[in-house]
Amino acid sequence: MKQLTGNQIRQMFLDYFKSKGHMIEPGASLIPHNDPTLLWINAGVAALKKYFDGSEKPASNRIANAQKSIRTNDIENVGRTARHHTFFEMLGNFSIGDYFKDEAIQFAWEFLTSEEWMGIDKDRLYVSVYTDDARAYEVWTTICGVDPSHILKTDDNFWEIGKGPGGPDSEIFFDRGEKYDPEGLGEKLFFDEMENDRYVEVWNVVFSQYDCDPSIDRKDYKELPQKNIDTGMGLERLVALVQDGETNFDTDLFLPIIRATEAMAKHPYEGEYKMAYRVIADHVRTVTFALSDGANFSNSGRGYVLRRVLRRAVRYGLKLGLDEPFLYKLVPVVADLMKDFYPYLQEHVVFNQKLIKVEEETFKKTLKVGQALLDEEISKAKDGKLSGEVVFKLYDTYGFPFELTQEIAEESGISVSRDEFDAEMNKQKERARNARNVKDSFASQNEELMNFNEPSEFIGYDHLSCDGKIIALFNAEGKMVDSLEDEGMIILDETCFYAESGGQVADKGVFTADGVEVEVLDVQKTRNKQHIHTVKINSGVLEKGMSLYGEVNVKDRLATTANHSCTHLLQSALVKVLGDHIHQAGSYNCPEYLRFDFNHYEKVTAEQLAEVERIVNEYISAAYPVTKEVMPIEEAKRSGATALFDEKYGDTVRVVTMGDVSKEFCAGCHVENTAQIGLCKIISEESIGSDSRRITAKTKFAAYQDFAQEHNMLENIADSAKQKGIKNIDTKVEAAYKTMRDMQKEIDNLKNQIFTLKSKEWATEAKDFGKVNVLIKSVLGMDADALKDIVSNLKASDDKMVVMVHNGIIENYQELKDHLTQKGYTFYSETDTEVAVKLIAYYYEKTDHNPLESMSRALLRVRGSFALGIMFKDRPGVVYAARKDSPLIVGQNEGGAFIASDVPAILSYTRNVYYLDNMEMAELHEDSIRFFNMNGDEIEKEMVNIKWDAEAAEKGGFEHFMMKEIHEQPKAVQDTLNSVVKDGQIDFSEIGLTDENIQDIDQIYIIACGSAYHVGMAAQYVFEDMVRVPVRVELASEFRYRNPILNPKALAIIISQSGETADSLAALRLCKENNIRTLGIVNVVGSSIAREADNVFYTLAGPEISVATTKAYSTQLIAAYALAIQFAKVKGTISEEQYAAYIKELETLPDKIQRIIDDKERIQWFASKQANAKDVFFIGRGIDYAICLEGSLKMKEISYIHSEAYAAGELKHGTISLIEDGTLVIGVLTQPALYEKTVSNMVECRSRGAYLMGLTTFGNYNIEDTADFTVYMPKTDPHFATSLAVIPLQLLGYYVSVAKGLDVDKPRNLAKSVTVE
User: Fold this and answer.
1) Beta partners for 939?
2) Where are the beta strands (DSSP E) in 1094-1189?
3) DSSP state, 85?
4) DSSP codes joined into one string, 584-599
5) pLDDT, tens digit, for every residue of 1127-1165?
6) CA 494/CA 455 separation, integer angstroms
7) Separation of alpha carbons 680 and 701, rounded Å
8) pTM of the model
9) Cα–Cα distance between 984 and 1129 in angstroms, integer?
């Protein structure tokens, strides 16, 4: 049997059936489409129901699929048993009147047993058939060759669900062997159909051949004219058998989730805790997939199921010590695990995490209280039973789903009654009904009204006055009468008064006739859809049959209408700003204001709310026509109209359309044009319950009044601030408050300075009590800072001092800091460096001043990366060094010894260096160097002689290293190219990468940090376009921590100038642990990555001193191009002619780079104009986006200007709103196929006031119609454009920095400046 991953098995199944002429049906959403009989898609065939019932004709009558499914009817067994799941994948093949029994059985047998496919040992498979299914038995034995002793005949193998298609089925079982048969019962387990874990069902093949009717004998069932095949094989179960997992959970489909949970939990995945891990792994898959398919948490329907699943997982998390929200952290794990077949999960990770975290936090708030109540009630339970009242209270007050309470209770041997729970639920519904006002009660329960069916027509959409005849009257008690003198209710044959519904309030107004005046107080709809008017008679008497003239209060109706229309626009704007998950949950539209309720998981920010208000007013000012059409409901659905509230609609519906921004089912009153709304002002946004928000707003004159009121308030503030007007009043008030805060800080600071001066004096009064210095002083008004200074001065007098230089990141510094604080140490900064030096000082005391032992004991407690230089005050003339992951070298010459992060820093002093490996220490004297491991054992190290010219580390007449290295790029590119291109061919013999190695590679990972990562981004486009293999570019700092799923036939390319980048080195080691071939692209011979990678491509950039990489980046690009071209040649994806042309073009790059550098003065002039820029945006598409990333980084790291790079097509998703008048936007346009699209994006930016710079190739002179300033570069093959386009961006970053008066070689980034200094 082949050893396969879960993903491989799924794909192999589909590939097999594709080879047998099956159409591969894409997996359907978990949420059924147009099938009210299903809450979730719960089987492979469920998604194909439309084909089997004849409502749709498939493109092929042979179908196969891998269908995600959810079943929660036996959720209590998930985690307890080996094979129960709420979310699972069902593999199936189906025939709709095509092949039947013979072929279906042979397909199943061939897929499972053929060496070309699964290769399962035939002797380990057993089969069951229906007792009377002679043909199935014959196919199994005579055609497939199954030993009859492996076949069970049973009456249970007949599939039918009530009346309808059904028939016999045949199941295939797998014998897992004796280790799953503890009692040694053997085949008896199978043939006696006993519950067991040895003989496990793999595949069920259903032969749908009869029209079943359970009311008659099966022998009388009639055969179907069209026979079908429906099969199902659980992927999780098959994977467990192939991977020999103890349970389905012990496979690569679940273990990554379990391991990620284990990393957060307090208990390991073993023993009594296994069930909790399995529940969590299963349930987080369910929740992640369901949310990604459009479900959401709620208290009914599938939302209730989803909430129940999540809350069960949270409760089991508590058993593992996971007291804080944790499920949301597993969403990326699920998405990464399933990305090969379900890539869309990646798009929903962030949104799903937000939803799940909010849901977890909400449940956590009530869980502990509810659990305490439940525990107390369980302890008091009489007769082993919980009352329905308690169970309902837990549901209603604490959010405990019935099933969760039931499961917890059953763990303690206590039962609960569903009937009692339902009875309490019905009581609550009755209370709610009784709490409704009289009009609802009357309209729904008055018997005379219920039996009154004479029609009443509403004509108020088009008329605000009308004539109508009274057809029924009811007095105040609800009794039908013939006349009315005071108050009561009337129905007319025709009315223009709108009855309250759909969130819109009822019209008010008057009815009149000769001698009669009636005030309309309210209008409601009766059960029979008549409009019943609640009236107060001011004069006269109303009688049945009387004609009345009705007039609606026009002012109120028009105001209400505007508010109602505005809710539609508000819904559209909310979807645009917050996302497609926004659904209306209720509304209220009256003359004064509108109220709009919607489902959302968090508070809407002030910025989002402002954008919603802006969009609504934009819609209003666009003057969209508003149309209202009555149409068949199916036609309305097809038109894209939105149905709200989960309401039940009739066969025809009214659709309200506002331009192209809103289209909804709605029976309310609306404006004729959005301009009639006038204005919209949002008054408030608030929470009205879990996941429910409410916006209140005003329109028309009411909105103006609100604005005017706020304006008056601002005028009053301006008067109080003695300002002439409200212009810039916000910044002025903010400045005033800032001044007040600064003055308060100054006062506090002066007080502390006074205490500090006193503390230095008081410190001399400290008494020596053996090992402890004690100062006793009574002082009033002293704060904590002054007290810290006293302690600091006391400790500074201690002659046992440790001094340290640290490069790296200590990840557990807070834990170590807490430990040292308990030991009496005080900290004066938030740095991990202070923690490290004090940890060494602590052990220095404990080890009687033994430097190596104190370093070893301290550093073994440190998690993270470090390169340390350490001196001890009582050991003058000695420097100690230690390293883990962060780079560190030791140099030596005749006059002394040196430590540094990189070779260039010490080239002026020596070219003899030692590379310190991980977890090694060094002891440096003036005339000797000794090396040790962390056990303190002395070790030998080999000296390396650096061949670089020492002059390379000098500025050579340039003002800064960066400008010198920009000018060195043509030579560096040429040298790197010459190292692998020989006689017009690429030769990787020195790299050690053969054509056979390349042929075996079917995926590439490029892993790097910073600029090297940007090289990878550009290389990705080149590799995928030329070589046609998938490429994934990873940030090393993320890759190393996310437990990636790696393709064993992949190549991992690690890019690092120094070869010592800590995260990149860790990523390389992770790849090697997973047996992934590694190739390092590095610039430093003998560096850690060079020593540890399987193959090394050395770039010949020479020493790079500048903080901002230039020539190393350019040589790394050349290495990537060469690799891509050679891979493409070996794999046959390019012709010999293309191969030669690509190499020829590469050889022109050094000269083209030089031409750009020679024209640098023009860029210098432009840069001088941008020195005061606050924000710079770079935009591009494809490779141009990768170029933008590097250009933006250059601007940030040496000019300290806020700069971002965006894929140009993403501007519309919020980013464009950041562009203001004068914002510099740099468009990169080197890719001919994407040129016009990027120009259009630049035009968008210009419309927002942006100042545009274009970077493109010579010949694209029409860019000057769009851009304010343009830089041209020589033409080259679009694959290699990065090498040229990056040069102007390097120069721009450099010259802006110089124009700002900054020292390019002395950056703020300390980690980088260590090397330069």
Assistant:
1) 931
2) 1095-1098, 1175-1180
3) -
4) EEEEEE-SS-EEEEEE
5) 999 999 999 999 999 999 999 999 999 999 988 888 988
6) 9
7) 10
8) 0.44
9) 13
